Backbone:
């Protein structure tokens, strides 16, 4: 079985998870979960709060300290975006961006990454001087400056206001189109998932409950009938009854 | 209709603000307010000495103190004693700070380090610093070695306590970030741990400086042949109140200057913290 699986990853998969079990204090959070994500695919992971979305993401990133078992295969170069920007307040913006880089041209690449997220000229600012949206853009620059093959994002826009969030969706869409990383985005926002992802997964009952391909050309609009259909399917699966609307 | 909507809030807003605003905050700061208390004391001292309220054997007149200081400087005695005292404090601060930081790093960054180091330091902290003096005199004699060690010990403790606390209170989210970026340990130390612990260290430094002067006074008065404390002790034996006062003023100046220096470093090094205050 192991040899079988090995050939599979070599061909097309960026992320492969098999029989993943994670738990804490006797409570099982993820139980025998399987997941494959193709190279370059943008996957959104939905689920009710407490369903284990973040646990799965952190397990894939290798930064969880829960007990468990299972097989996780990821590319070598992997970046993580947190819900808070998590910039080090004592480093200037550019130093925050290049903290994970260890190449001689780090600062040049950092400047380019900042320009890409629309923050050219703010290299010497302290993180505390930036707005919430700007801080999250710096965090995106920090994640992308290493040219990751896999980008893991844990509700990266959850703490932003609605307008800023829409702008960030457009920015993330652009950046992903340009750098083509494989993306796994955890979100609780159904619209965000349908707008951005090629494929939406729903985590339910400690496993992937629903696996939905989104066949819509980008950029996507909330008014497209197919968009609304996907939305209804996902909301129903999440247990939200929309008949009253 | 529109006019009433426009005028009403104005009327409501202006009347109560003038009369019934309940103020609990302190008013505006007085310019140079810090200087008023000391200047008043100085005035009472000067006038009291001038009209004979204060007997000169109890407290010398300010002008006597100034002339005495002038004489001491002219003879070169003041500089000599000051140099000796400053050297003792300087060496002890340097050694104590280094030892304190190293201990805090070992204890803050490893469970074994904490198990070995934290307990003894906490016990040392519970003992009043100068209570160790008799033992230190028995061990190291009454020479320079004992003095340096006593002052150093009084520096190590606050540096250790506050740096260790600073290390331990670094946000766990930053540690998680460092893990997700797969930062090597050296980069993690340099860019996350040390800057994160810097506010704690600098706070410890302010306490350490005060402690160093305190210990200095005591060791210089216990058994010494040089230093400001010795100069004062000698003056006591001859009943020279004015020399004692010169020594006290000197200690006050040294204390204020060194605290000011640490605060200056604090403001420079922690400039990122003031970004919200702009």
Residues:
């Amino acid at each position: 079985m192991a040899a079988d699986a090995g050939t599979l990853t070599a061909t097309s998969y960026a992320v492969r998870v098999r029989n993943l079990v994670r738990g804490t204090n006797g409570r099982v959070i993820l139980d025998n979960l399987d997941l494959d994500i193709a190279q370059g695919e943008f996957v959104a992971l939905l689920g009710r709060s407490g369903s284990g979305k973040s646990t799965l993401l952190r397990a894939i990133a290798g930064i969880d300290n829960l007990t468990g078992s299972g097989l996780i295969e990821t590319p070598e170069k992997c970046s993580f975006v947190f819900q808070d920007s998590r910039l080090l307040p004592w480093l200037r913006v550019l130093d925050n961006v290049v903290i994970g880089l260890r190449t001689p041209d780090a600062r040049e690449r950092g400047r380019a990454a900042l320009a890409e997220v629309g923050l050219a000229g703010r290299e010497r600012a302290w993180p505390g001087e930036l707005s919430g949206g700007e801080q999250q853009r710096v965090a995106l620059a920090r994640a992308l400056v290493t040219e990751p093959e896999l980008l893991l994002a844990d509700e990266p826009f959850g703490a932003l206001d609605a307008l800023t969030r829409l702008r960030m969706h457009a920015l993330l869409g652009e950046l992903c189109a340009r750098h083509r990383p494989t993306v796994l985005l955890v979100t609780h926002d159904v619209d965000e998932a349908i707008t951005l992802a090629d494929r939406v997964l729903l985590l339910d009952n400690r496993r992937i409950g629903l696996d939905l391909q989104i066949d819509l050309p980008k950029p996507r609009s909330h008014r497209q009938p197919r968009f609304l259909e996907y939305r209804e399917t996902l909301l129903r699966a999440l247990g939200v009854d929309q008949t009253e609307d | 209709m529109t006019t009433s909507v426009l005028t009403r809030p104005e009327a409501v807003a202006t009347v109560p603000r003038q009369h019934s605003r309940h103020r609990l905050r302190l008013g505006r700061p007085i310019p140079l307010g810090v200087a008023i208390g000391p200047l008043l004391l100085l005035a009472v001292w000067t006038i009291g000495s001038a009209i004979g309220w204060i007997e000169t054997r109890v407290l010398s007149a300010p002008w006597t103190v100034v002339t005495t200081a002038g004489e001491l400087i002219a003879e070169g005695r003041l500089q000599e004693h000051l140099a000796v005292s400053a050297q003792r404090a300087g060496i002890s601060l340097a050694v104590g700070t280094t030892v304190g930081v190293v201990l805090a790093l070992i204890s803050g960054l490893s469970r074994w380090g904490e198990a070995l180091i934290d307990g003894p330091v906490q016990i040392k902290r519970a003992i009043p610093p100068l209570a160790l003096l008799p033992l230190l005199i028995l061990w190291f004699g009454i020479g320079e070695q004992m003095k340096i060690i006593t002052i150093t010990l009084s520096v190590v403790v606050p540096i250790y306590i506050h740096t260790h606390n600073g290390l331990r209170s670094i946000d766990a989210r930053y540690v998680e970030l460092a893990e997700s970026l797969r930062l090597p340990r050296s980069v993690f130390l340099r860019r996350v741990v040390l800057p994160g612990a810097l506010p704690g260290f600098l706070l410890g430094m302010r306490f350490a400086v005060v402690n160093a002067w305190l210990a200095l006074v005591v060791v210089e008065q216990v058994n010494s042949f040089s230093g400001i404390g010795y100069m004062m002790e000698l003056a006591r034996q001859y009943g020279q109140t004015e020399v004692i006062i010169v020594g006290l003023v000197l200690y006050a100046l040294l204390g204020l200057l060194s605290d000011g220096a640490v605060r200056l470093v604090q403001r420079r090094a922690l400039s990122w913290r003031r970004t919200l205050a702009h």
Notes: Helices of chain A lie at 2-11, 53-61, 93-97, 106-116, 132-144, 162-179, 190-196, 225-237.
